[in-house]
Amino acid sequence: MYYTYILQSKKSGKFYIGSCQNIEVRLDRHNAGATFSTKSGRPWKLVYYESFQNNSDALKREREIKLKKSRKYIEYLIASTD
Hints:
By secondary structure, this protein is an alpha+beta fold. The protein is 40% helix and 28% strand. The chain has helices at residues 23-32, 55-68, 71-79, and strands at 2-9, 15-20, 44-52. It has a 3-stranded antiparallel sheet with strand order 2-1-3, with helices on both faces. The longest helix has 14 residues, at 55-68.
């Protein structure tokens, strides 16, 4: 399984969108500071994810969400899982 995920910084409230094969390991890496782009926003919490059969679909969805450049859209996605 592959995933597209959205993290939210508990420190700043900012969102980070990514994709991976193992969400738990990836979240641990973000919170450990192993990822340069998210190091300053630690700690992070997982607020949304979608699963896919292959990596290319997960990457495609990641790009689709990022291209919207919309906090409102991200908040809509998160709210749709409640």
